[in-house]
Amino acid sequence: VEIFPTKFVCKFLHKNLEILKFPNQTAILKINKCLGDFHKLQSLILPYNTELKSDGIPSEILKLYRNKLKTFNIKGNEKLLESFSWGSEGISRDLHTNMTNFILQYFRGVRVLNLSGNNIDDNNIFYNLLLHLKKLEYLNMSFNAFNSIQPNMLYNMTNTSWANLKGVDLSSNKMLTYVSLTFSQFIEKRNVDINLKDSQNLIFLGWR
Known about the structure:
Layout: E1 3-4, H1 7-12, E2 19-21, E3 30-31, E4 43-45, E5 71-73, H2 78-82, E6 83-85, H3 96-106, E7 112-114, H4 123-132, E8 138-140, E9 148-149, E10 167-169, E11 178-180, H5 181-189, E12 193-195, E13 204-206
Parallel strand pairs: 1-3, 2-4, 4-5, 6-7, 7-8, 8-10, 9-11, 10-12, 11-13
Helix pairs in contact: 3-4
């Protein structure tokens, strides 16, 4: 079984299932997107599913997070815990707070994070991820909806902030018009590679 829950479980058990437990598997690559239909699910227990892909947890889980779902166990899934992707999921803005909190709760040790293509326009999401994900090396925020990159929290940065960060992808943010000089200087000082390709409307560099 490469995708779990199976079609049978999704079709016949989604209404009342409260605990979904499937540990110690080596064949599962992804969790089925039907997970979002398990409205009574309280526990999702998936430790040591060692082949779960970086995009193996569907963003549909955000519909359950901080609702009924109280336990989410992905211990031992080292590949997933180091590289996590919700790229091109089209996560709606009303779920962005859940998205951020979910990542900060369960993926604190992530090194590569892909949130491209999710309509993100809130600087606070960007900075909270950088602030709290201490091991983060690469952050992909391309194909989102930022109109500015401002330093809200940069004044609290120290020489040890973003210690492992190597690259930030902000390419194809079509609405991006403004990047603060403070942010650009901090990026340059830390020798972080930043991608602003196809941000055609970027016309302002200001001191904030």
